[in-house]
């Protein structure tokens, strides 16, 4: 152990003598790691948020499609679907999107009977009257309001409607509640001017999860204009969207990875005259080939670990503290219209391990291999160049 510490101390001293070159390598290495890990951290955090959001989703969501667009679904469909064997419950859901010109954000308006499970009331309660509402913490922050304040919205009839805020809530997933406004169901129906015999969609619960696809086929057979969406299809869609967007960003930042590979290749193709002279002197002083390789291994390890930790730290600050301003518009897509929310740190250790393997190992190899060539050469020849 003492021998390793002495060699490590000598390696650090050797790097200090070449401050400029060592610092440039650390900067390029750290930037490469920060760029790639920012994409991975942001995508994994959003995917984890979406997974929590979808955990309580119904087995099947039935929508009506007219001319290829989502339309309101007649309430009569509920009776027909309930008659299908294997269906436990069919629940009409009333909800809609509202663009708030004051904040430039999209809010989701939902009936109180359709409120998701797991809400944590930060203050107040859920609405119980036609002129009351409960809002997510993001809406409260965006509008700078709290309980007992008035929330004014423009209805479908282009009339200003005021709702008294009776509660502020949050949930484990910020994607679920940050932009959410809960109203009494009749108030929501009046606000959007929904016909009394129509609803936004139907949530279907099935006794046996293995029969969800079969139930979806039967619904499609009974009502050809219906679009049944299974829970699995929603999850796969989220994964596909995040994977595509993160893959696009990783392709862009692959330029940084190529630059790093060029740097490693340039280091592997040969040593500088100063480094060769240093190896020759060490060999002349009695160092064997294993000691020289161990010295260069520790030099590469110090640089690689320092740069990797700096890159990971920069990525964590960029994503979870600053909100990933350089990447979020691409990965979130249209959801940037939501009020800004703080991402919950979700770190995939497997991704970090793969990133470390793809960056640290090639650099160590490019450091040790050329040194091995110089270490096995006669010291006098090495010092003479």
Entry keywords:
385 residues, alpha+beta, 2 domains, seven-stranded mixed beta sheet, five-stranded antiparallel beta sheet, 13 helices, 14 strands, 19% strand
Average of the residue pLDDT scores:
80
- Please identify the structural class as seen in this structure: alpha+beta
Number of helices: 13
Biggest β-sheet, characterized? 7 strands, mixed
Helix/strand order, N-terminal first? HHEEEHEEEEEHEEHEHEEHEHHHHHH
Number of strands: 14
Q: Strand portion, in percent?
A: 15-25%
| Count of distinct structural domains | 2
Distance between the termini: 34 Å
Tell me roughly what share of residues is in helical segments. 40-55%
**Unreliable sequence segments:** none
Shape: elongated
Q: Which radius of gyration do the C-alpha atoms yield?
A: 30 Å
Blueprint of the fold:
Layout: H1 2-17, H2 19-54, E1 60-66, E2 69-71, E3 73-74, H3 76-82, E4 87-93, E5 95-100, E6 105-111, E7 120-124, E8 132-136, H4 137-143, E9 150-154, E10 160-170, H5 174-177, E11 180-183, H6 185-191, E12 198-199, E13 201-206, H7 212-222, E14 226-230, H8 231-268, H9 273-284, H10 289-321, H11 328-332, H12 349-375, H13 379-384
Parallel strand pairs: 6-11, 8-10
Antiparallel strand pairs: 1-2, 1-13, 1-14, 3-12, 4-13, 5-6, 7-10, 8-11, 9-10
Helix pairs in contact: 1-10, 2-8, 2-10, 2-12, 8-12, 10-12
């Amino acid at each position: 152990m003492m021998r390793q510490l002495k060699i490590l101390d000598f390696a650090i001293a050797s790097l200090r003598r070449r401050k400029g070159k060592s610092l440039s390598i650390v900067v390029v290495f750290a930037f490469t790691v920060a760029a790639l890990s920012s994409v991975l951290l942001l995508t994994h955090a959003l995917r984890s948020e979406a997974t929590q959001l979808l955990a309580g989703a119904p087995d099947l969501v039935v929508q009506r499609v007219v001319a290829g667009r989502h339309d309101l679904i007649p309430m009569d469909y509920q009776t027909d679907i309930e008659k299908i064997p294997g269906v436990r419950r069919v629940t009409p859901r009333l909800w809609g999107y509202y663009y708030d010109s004051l904040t430039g954000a999209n809010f989701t308006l939902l009936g109180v009977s359709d409120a998701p499970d797991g809400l944590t009331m930060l203050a107040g309660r859920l609405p119980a009257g036609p002129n009351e509402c409960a809002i997510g913490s993001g809406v409260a922050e965006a509008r700078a309001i709290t309980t007992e304040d008035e929330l004014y919205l423009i209805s479908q009839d282009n009339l200003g409607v005021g709702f008294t805020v009776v509660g502020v809530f949050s949930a484990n997933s910020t994607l679920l509640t940050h932009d959410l406004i809960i109203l009494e169901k009749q108030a929501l129906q009046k606000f959007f001017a929904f016909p009394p015999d129509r609803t936004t969609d139907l949530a279907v619960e099935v006794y046996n999860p293995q029969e969800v696809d079969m139930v979806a086929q039967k619904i499609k057979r009974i009502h050809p204009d219906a679009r049944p969406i299974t829970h699995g299809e929603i999850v796969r869609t989220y994964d596909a969207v995040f994977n595509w967007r993160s893959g696009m960003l990783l392709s862009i930042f692959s330029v940084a990875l190529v630059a790093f590979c060029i740097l490693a290749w340039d280091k592997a193709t040969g040593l500088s005259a100063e480094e060769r002279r240093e190896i020759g002197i060490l060999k002349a002083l009695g160092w064997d080939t294993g000691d020289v390789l161990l010295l260069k291994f520790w030099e590469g390890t110090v640089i690689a670990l320092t740069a990797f930790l700096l890159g990971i730290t920069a990525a964590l600050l960029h994503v979870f503290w600053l909100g990933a301003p350089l990447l979020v518009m691409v990965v979130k897509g249209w959801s940037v219209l939501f009020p800004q929310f703080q991402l919950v740190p979700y770190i995939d250790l497997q991704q970090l391990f793969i990133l470390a393997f793809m960056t640290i190992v090639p650099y160590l190899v490019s450091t040790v291999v050329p040194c091995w060539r110089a270490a096995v050469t006669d010291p006098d020849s090495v010092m003479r160049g």
